[in-house]
Specification:
heterodimer; A: 339 residues; alpha/beta; Rossmann fold; 2 domains; seven-stranded mixed sheet; five-stranded mixed sheet; globular; B: 310 residues; five-stranded parallel sheet; two-stranded antiparallel sheet
Chain lengths: 339, 310
């Protein structure tokens, strides 16, 4: 093999950021196209009240799948998130059942007041499906909703869902439609990984569930980090570490009882979330533990409390500790440190 | 069928003679103003200036225009009247009492602990209050959603009204909604703007000028009318014109209503215009006397006019 540097090898080529359409699927993981759009079509087939509302991001939140099936039930509100939420409230008040899509940053930072006062306070059944939650784009802070759960957890009467994969989304959509009141879902869109079908698991709104049992380490996870936790658990078997994964797809209301029962065992416990360490899953767990002390430390795997870099998503997930390999390395390091 | 709501009791009064409608609206406006003063006195304050100023608009809306069943504020086929300016609630409570949805005696509980009539209007507290206003710039967007939804369901005869203020025209969200209403051709939507020229920090013309309003709404694709918002006849004609053109695929309608804060009580009309008008404890009686005197004077003029006509 030549040592000449006259030609650029694949390894040397700059990693393309693929900005907005970066995949979160690990190599070899099965994916499903647009699970939300197809799940909404299934619900809409049986329920005439269902309408889709978007703020100029239908194509990028998989709502276009619904729009193609039901053009007369698809409302394009333009790049106007405040209007989209207000109008959805008006629709819900007059007998419709809106699913509203935008990106997480716009649903939370930009249109909070409208979600809070027009939708949550009157208790309307409006379901916000917000794409690009946490760090799922390399586009930079304008589109990285690293603090979306922290923003929303203080809003009364809002259900917050952080699904792990396509199966979670498919099973959550009909339950969200059936449940009264407002909800916010951290939507995974595009080619969405599918991992939970390999386990004895089904999504149940409001419930945390043990997806994988294990004796040595407990990973309490939500969102796409449940997928990473499960993949990491498989890899950790090679290190003779038996890892349990407790998936918490509903962040609010939080299933504290199930989580505390799981933590109250002699296993090293870490939380895993695609969100800043402030105000998300880790602090939900911490708050529960403050109310019912179980006398055990819990270590967060989460994004740092800082504005994140732009770049290629896999690089960023490595950098900030969310990649499968980073989770494996972190668990091994914590086992060393905590003995 | 006996239990079915009887909307005819509160159907628009368009089939009556204009003179009758004007006189009826004037009388309703007077009682709405009196209710505003009673609430202000009971609470020792409140948004009395705004309430007096908008009384004619609400009188026309609630006693001449809206299709509603006072006994059943949830009646599915009613017109919707959305108060986005939550602080105007005392005027709307007074209008709801006038319409018969709440008891007039209940007005005394305005803004008191445990009352169904909070200082800022909320749908979760008060029968007949369609939305929770207060955070300004929300109402028109919700109204757009309702108008779309009613049309979606084929309920095309129902109208959606949104009462907003000129201060609320500062909010970008209002113009998001304005743009979309004409895009969706929401002829079943009527925005009513109380142009009293004041907002929290001072005159609208100084805080953030919003003129020229007619031209702005027209450029957004709306059917715009500007009227004296303290003249029931002009209001009735404008509301009628909006309703007559309310086909569900037409232009949305805006009625810009120039009003005087404190209208009907000369000592308040001439007082320094403040967002939260100051009225001393011993002034409420005088306010009511001035309101009554003005009403008597109007009634005399009205009688003379009728005699002249005869």
């Amino acid at each position: 093999m030549s040592t000449s540097s006259t030609s650029t090898t694949a390894a040397q080529a700059p990693k393309r950021s693929a900005a907005m359409i970066a995949s979160i699927a690990d190599a070899g993981v099965e994916t499903t196209r647009a699970p939300f759009g197809h799940a909404l079509n299934a619900v809409a087939a049986d329920d005439e009240r269902v309408v889709g509302v978007t703020a100029d991001l239908g194509k990028y939140t998989d709502l276009h799948v619904f729009g193609e099936e039901h053009p007369d039930r698809y409302y394009q509100m333009g790049m106007a998130e405040q209007l989209a939420f207000g109008a959805a409230a008006g629709m819900a008040q007059t007998g419709l059942l809106p699913f509203v899509t935008t990106y997480s940053v716009f649903a939370t930072r930009r249109a909070y007041d409208f979600l809070c006062l027009d939708i949550a306070e009157p208790g309307l059944n409006v379901n916000v499906m917000a794409a690009l939650p946490g760090l799922t784009t390399g586009y930079g802070p304008s589109h990285q909703a690293f603090e979306d759960m922290a923003i929303l957890r203080g809003m009364p009467d809002l259900t917050i869902v952080d699904p792990a994969d396509a199966l979670d989304i498919e099973q959550a959509v009909p339950q969200l439609a059936a449940a009264p009141g407002a909800s916010y879902t951290r939507l995974l869109r595009g080619a969405v990984p599918r991992v939970l079908h390999e386990y004895d698991y089904s999504f149940e709104l409001g419930k945390a569930k043990v997806v994988r049992p294990g004796e040595d380490v407990l990973l309490v996870s939500s969102g796409l980090m449940t997928m990473r936790a499960l993949l990491a658990a498989e890899k950790l078997t090679e290190h003779s570490v038996d890892v349990a994964v407790l998936h918490c797809p509903t962040i609010k209301p939080f299933d504290a009882e199930t989580v505390l029962d799981a933590i109250d065992t002699p296993r090293m416990t870490l939380t895993c979330e695609n969100h800043t360490v402030v105000g998300g899953l880790f602090e939900s767990v911490a708050a529960a533990m403050a109310r019912r002390p179980v006398g055990r430390p819990v270590t967060p795997i989460a994004l740092p409390d800082e504005f994140l870099d732009a770049g290629a998503l896999p690089t960023l997930h490595d950098r900030y500790g969310l990649s499968t390999d980073a989770v494996v390395a972190r668990v091994l390091a914590e086992l060393d440190a905590q003995g | 069928m006996n239990t079915a709501p009887q909307p005819a009791a509160r159907a628009p009064m368009g089939d009556r003679g204009l003179d009758v409608r004007i006189k009826s609206a004037q009388e309703a406006a007077h009682r709405i103003r009196l209710g505003v003063l009673e609430q202000g006195e009971a609470q020792g304050g409140g948004y009395v200036g705004q309430g007096l100023g908008v009384a004619d608009v609400l009188a026309v809306a609630y006693t001449d225009q809206l299709r509603l069943d006072p006994a059943d504020p949830e009646w599915e086929d009613r017109d919707r009247f959305l108060l986005s300016i939550g602080h105007y609630a005392l005027a709307l409570y007074s209008a709801l009492a006038e319409a018969g949805t709440i008891e007039r005696e209940e007005l005394e509980s305005y803004a008191a602990d445990g009352s169904r009539l909070p200082m800022s209007g909320m749908s979760t507290y008060t029968p007949g209050m369609e939305i929770s206003g207060g955070s300004l710039g929300h109402g028109l967007g919700v109204a757009v959603g309702m108008a779309l939804s009613l049309r979606h369901q084929g309920r095309e005869e129902q109208l959606v009204y949104n009462l907003l203020s000129d201060g609320e025209l500062d909010e970008g969200a209002t113009w998001e909604a304005a743009m979309s209403a004409s895009h969706f051709q929401l002829g079943n939507l009527v925005a009513v703007v109380d142009m009293n020229g004041m907002q929290a920090d001072g005159p609208t013309a100084e805080v953030l000028p919003t003129e020229p309003q007619v031209e702005r709404w027209e450029s957004f694709g709306w059917h715009a009318q500007r009227v004296d918002g303290n003249d029931p006849e002009e209001l009735i004609r404008a509301f009628d014109a909006a309703r007559e053109q309310a086909d569900a695929t037409g232009r949305p309608h805006v009625i810009l209503c120039d009003t005087v804060m404190g209208k009907g009580v000369p000592m308040l009309e001439s007082r320094e215009k403040l967002h939260f008008m100051k009225i001393a404890d011993d002034e409420w009686g005088l306010c009511k006397e001035q309101l009554a005197a003005g009403r008597a004077s109007d009634a005399n003029e009205s009688d003379e006019t009728e005699e002249d006509v005869r």
